[in-house]
Automatic annotation (TrEMBL):
Superkingdom of origin organism: Bacteria
Protein name as catalogued: ABC transport system permease protein
Subcellular locations according to the entry: Cell membrane
TM spans (from-to): 16-34, 64-88, 109-137, 157-176, 210-230, 236-258, 294-314, 334-367, 388-415, 435-457
Keywords: Cell membrane, Membrane, Transmembrane, Transmembrane helix
Membrane topology (UniProt): Multi-pass membrane protein
UniProt keyword RNA-binding present: no
Boundaries of every ABC3 transporter permease C-terminal domain copy: 65-185, 345-467
Keyword Transmembrane applies: yes
């Protein structure tokens, strides 16, 4: 079993490049979150930043929330990555099954592959994250932005990124191999396996109940947290888990309702033959489409959430700070702006991971539709039309992910800042969110760029498919 895993890594190491990259980015992300929390704590004390009692409580909540987000993003995208590897290796797995290897042995070997990939990527990411954090902290101290306060960036908590990386990739590998290895060896070599892996028939009753309970229960907790936040900053301790739980419900049910959103997005790309085929492809494999879209939704939701929360915070505390000492106000505002900048950089990692997930999803689409693309080429489809089809599918996925993430981010960001500061007697309770125009423009521009970039590699693979060789596949 172990020997099989190392043999697959030795001969097929290239297929794990994207998995290592995701684990690396996730580890860098988690490491910098941990380092950021440490830095903000030290600087909030040394720089005497905002002398309110709930600042430390907010940092505690944000620490847990950020780490949860890093784990969440890594698990979803890594699972999708291993799904691609399993799809491309299905015939090899079938041959091993025919030669006598049991499903349990093969799944265990694949899980070991995931553990090794996660370990390598996480260790490299941890080192890179520490180096970047040290360089950035030194530069900010030299520039006078931060107070020159001694800080220890090496903490026991830094073991967490490695543990999370290993566990998430191991679990993703095991989950990704479940459906492929759950069929008979002969059936695994057949063409019908593709649809079994990718399609979804209907939501099981237990899962439907879980989705409803998680989503509705999370919304109730979120609203309750906001209500408590009108009286006490501890409302964020209720609102944050509520938001997370509702989002988990959203993710679990995404496969079953995101099809409607993809239909609407399909209309936005026009009625040409490549666009119509792209829409049909996205709807044919809802599980695959939802996984790739959810990765993007997470990234956009995070960016929007922290932007809306930060801008709303600044808008509400600005008038309060107007009557304070000028030097203190300037320091507080600079620190807040810097914190938002750090958050923007960190959240950028989740968008990069989401982009990798989208590329992987489209690559899986090309693998699964190899015969179909070959048939289209044989019937007269040009290389340009194939590229247009892949690009249209990418646009549809990014459109759904961008708009959904924008709406969720506004709701969660507004709820979070209400729960955190509405109880302050200077604020005076309920207030409307501050939504800067630039975030909408940036998300729209980023979605367009992501759609173009993420479709480039799968499109190149698609146009290289020879019609004769593709149709010859049994």
């Amino acid at each position: 079993m172990i020997a099989l895993a190392f043999r697959e890594l030795w001969h097929g190491g290239r297929q794990h490049v994207s998995s290592v990259l995701v684990a690396l980015l996730s580890s860098v992300f988690a490491t910098m979150l941990i380092e950021m929390d440490t830095v903000l704590r030290v600087q909030s004390i040394g720089g005497k930043f905002i002398q309110h009692g709930y600042v430390r409580a907010l940092l505690d909540v944000l620490d847990v929330l950020f780490f949860f987000v890093a784990v969440f993003v890594a698990c979803i995208v890594t699972a999708n990555t291993f799904g691609i590897i399993m799809a491309g290796r299905s015939k090899h797995i079938a041959l091993l099954r025919l030669l006598g290897a049991s499903a349990k042995t093969l799944r265990s070997a694949i899980a070991i592959e995931g553990a090794i990939v996660g370990l390598v990527g996480s260790i490299i990411g941890l080192v890179l994250g520490l180096v970047v954090a040290q360089i950035a902290y030194g530069a900010l101290v030299s520039a006078g932005t931060f107070v020159d306060t001694p800080i220890s960036t090496i903490t026991p908590l830094l073991v967490a990124p490695i543990v999370v990386g290993v566990v998430s990739t191991t679990g993703a590998a095991w989950f990704g191999s479940r459906k492929i290895l759950g069929v008979s060896p002969i059936e695994a070599t057949g063409h019908t396996q593709e649809s079994k892996v990718a399609t979804v028939k209907e939501m099981p009753r237990r899962l439907r109940t879980l989705v409803i309970v998680a989503f509705v229960g999370g919304i109730v907790l979120l609203v309750a947290g906001v209500a408590i936040g009108l009286k006490s900053p501890l409302g964020l301790l209720v609102a944050a888990p509520g938001g997370a739980l509702s989002f988990v419900g959203f993710v679990l049910g995404a496969t079953y309702f995101i099809s409607g959103l993809l239909k609407l997005a399909g209309r936005a790309t026009g009625s040409s033959t490549p666009s119509v085929l792209a829409s049909a492809n996205a709807l044919r494999y809802p599980a695959r489409s939802s996984r790739s879209t959810i990765g993007l939704i997470i990234g956009v939701t995070l960016v929007t959430m922290f932007t809306v929360a930060g801008q709303s915070f600044l808008a509400q505390t600005g008038p309060v700070a107007a009557g304070a000492d000028a030097a203190e106000v300037a320091g507080d505002q600079a620190f807040l702006q810097l914190t938002m900048g750090i958050l923007a950089v960190l959240i950028g990692f989740s968008l990069v991971i989401a982009a990798i997930g989208l590329v992987n999803s489209l690559s899986l689409s090309v693998i699964q539709r190899r015969r179909e693309i070959g048939l289209l080429r044989a019937l007269g489809f040009t290389k340009g039309q194939v590229r247009t089809m892949i690009l249209a599918e990418s646009i549809q996925l990014t459109l759904v992910g961008g708009l959904t993430g924008l709406i969720l981010g506004i709701v969660y960001g507004w709820a979070g800042v209400l729960a955190a500061i509405a109880s302050d007697h200077h604020i005076g309770g309920f207030f409307a969110p501050t939504i800067p125009a630039w975030i909408i423009i940036a998300i729209a521009a980023g979605a367009i760029l992501l759609a173009i970039v993420s479709s480039a590699i799968p499109a190149r693979s698609a146009v290289r498919i020879s019609p004769v060789r593709a149709l010859a596949i049994e």
